[in-house]
Fold this sequence. Notes:
The protein is mainly alpha-helical. Among the domains are: about 5-65; about 170-335, no CATH class. It contains 15 helices and five strands. A five-stranded mixed β-sheet has the order 1-2-5-4-3. It is globular. The relative contact order is 0.10.
Amino acid sequence: MPEKNWNIFLEILRSGLWGLDLSLPDVASSPGWDPLLALGREQAVMGLLLRGIAQLPEDQRPSGPLAPLLQAWETAFARANARYARVQGALLKRLSEAGLHPVVQKGTEAAKYYSDPSIRQVGDIDLYLSGDEFRRARALFPDARRASDGAVVFALDGVTVELHPRYYDIHLPASKLPAVGSPCGEVLLLSSHIFKHAMGPGIGCKQLCDLAVAMTRLECRYDKQELALALKAAGLLRWHTLLCSLLVADLGLDPSCCLPDFDPVDPERLRRIVRASGNFGMADEGRRRSRQWSTFGKKAATAVAFLRRLPFSLRYGSRETLATIWGLATGNFRK
């Protein structure tokens, strides 16, 4: 992907993310809109991209056959969001009626920080239930499969649901972590979750945007020293600095939303992962092909992805890298 296309994509993405006016005369001289829309799909930020395009002057917006295509995307987004909201509402009601207290986390929870939650591209529904409640919830869905990370996975009305026995993607005792669902906890969860994807199949701009808007909306609502201590205990302080450096450089996050002693570093190593992999590896041709393979083939491809990223992962979070790999390995044997 040419550098020029990526830079134009980021300008439109930032406009959609923050609702900024935009003028891009270079779009007319670029290879066209198709590469930019392809990036929107690979990075799972089509809603934000469409919003950014709407900020352009009328004469710079896509026209001709592309206009109805963009309208179709907007219609599909509205329908998908409505379906997810319906499924999540029914699921939460069922669990509540069973005396359970699920906590919504990650994607669908992060959507609340957007000025318009419907522009965030929907994915899975992730719920956390602690201890005995997780076991009771699992019994409600006997056909669900157990993932290698301990989650329970099943589908409702075509929507993938994951029930998690742990709120954080961090191998630390609860006493060293912020309260579940707290503002500090949500920032920590999103940061560590991005790391777990970056160390394996890859991460896209969608999760980066989630963290950028969450940190912006939650500014002054949590103790940043508490966040720093948790990151340090997990060995992820260096990672969080790299991640925030990319959010500031590419997505326009206000540096004041970062930790008080934030000293930006060159985010190019992480930027290359985001560009090459996309959301869950959607930009990686090899990763896309592996989805057609057998279960064993898919697991082998995932293992290769983790090994390929090992130098990066060990540099920015060795403790969590080793704990995660060990957990996934033993989890596959337990299944």
